[in-house]
Amino acid sequence: MPVKIGNRNGLTICYVEGEIDINTSPDVKKPFDKLISSKTPKIIVNLSKVTYVDSSGLATLVEILKNMRSYGGKLKLSNMSSKIKSLFEITKLEKLFDIVADEEEAISTFV
């Protein structure tokens, strides 16, 4: 599963594609581990091309958030499909994560 990393307005934006599941979670986590080890302060995760998330995918996202918060970093999730967003609502994770409609809103609320 590719994770492409870009920068906009001084913010790190990670574009995740495909499925985040038991098989792909370790590959999704690797680029975030690098960003976290360098204490990247603000990350936006664009999920527009994510088609499926299972429980291990949710656990991976929670772990990324937890690791970022340990040094004061902030994470926003953007561009979720309605299917993925409902998964976050059912699991009550929308209360844990800062979820915004799109990348533009994420950038404007970070700056």
What features would you describe in this structure?
This protein has helices at residues 25-37, 55-69, 82-90, 103-110; strands at residues 3-8, 11-20, 42-53, 74-78, 98-99. By secondary structure, it is of the alpha/beta class. The chain has a single domain (3-110), classed as STAS domain (Transcription Regulator spoIIAA, 2-Layer Sandwich). A hairpin with a 2-residue loop joins strand 1 (3-8) and strand 2 (11-20). Helix 1 packs parallel to helix 2. The longest helix has 15 residues, at 55-69. The protein is globular, with a radius of gyration of 13 Å. The N and C termini lie far apart (29 Å). The model has no long low-confidence stretch (mean pLDDT 96).
Considering the chains and any ligands shown, give keywords for the structure.
single chain; 111 residues; alpha/beta; Transcription Regulator spoIIAA; 5-stranded mixed β-sheet; 4 helices; 5 strands; 41% helix; globular
